[in-house]
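Residues determine shape. Next comes a sample protein:
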Amino acid sequence: MDLPKVLIQDEVKRALLEDLGRAGDLSTQATIDPEKIATALFVARDAGVVSGLPHASLAFETIDSELLFDQKISDGDQVSPGTIIASVSGLARSILSAERTALNFMCHLSGISTLTAQFLAQIAHTDARMCCTRKTIPGLRASQKYAVRRGGGSNHRFGLDDAILIKDNHIAVAGGITKALEAAKAFAGHLVKIEIEVDTLDQFEEALIAGADCVLLDNFSADRLREAVEINRGRAALEASGGVKLETVKAIAESGVDYISSSQITMSASTFDIGLDIQIR
């Protein structure tokens, strides 16, 4: 699913305003002839999955609608070092003023897509789906979740308003798992799924009896996950979360759970190295 421009306009505009400040790009104004024309190439310096091309394109368009942004590949494509990702042509001043914002988005989002793809490679032999969480950088959730999809992953909730997820604090205040699920069922519309988080197999069995649509198995070992899958026998969708890393995700997926969620892919991804090489005409 691509991101409509309207969903990223505010993100890109905020980033440009943050960079340009109150007086604009002083370095470029001081050194570059206003009429100078240039072409810049986005070149991958790492191997991985590219994401953030719509953000880069919009950054240049916002600075100067006359700039020509030409994608050589698409978001979600695998690249190797030296791959030309895109080019931008036009007034050199405009290119230089939008350069850092465009690269910031592409390097960050490509890092997320690349790490997501690495997780997916570990579990490709299973039916488990890899999901992100609501642990995202404030203001960048839609873009970070988009990058997860470009890397082959799946999205968990986008916010508090698109599903009911009953966590440990909800359970404590509501008075227990059964009470919390009963209250949620009475409240929810017929299209709203209800998921509940459990810490033990006893809690898990109570959640199944109470009719949860999905159960989040929090910090279960691989052995306990297999037990839960056996107890469940297909009654509820099962999600494993907590302690999910590249080194552990394979064993988690092989337990037979349906979903695996981790904040690692949005909060711990390394920056993907992309260079912008200027060519003067």
User: Anything to note?
Assistant: The chain has eleven helices and twelve strands. The CA atoms of residues 115 and 265 lie 6 Å apart.
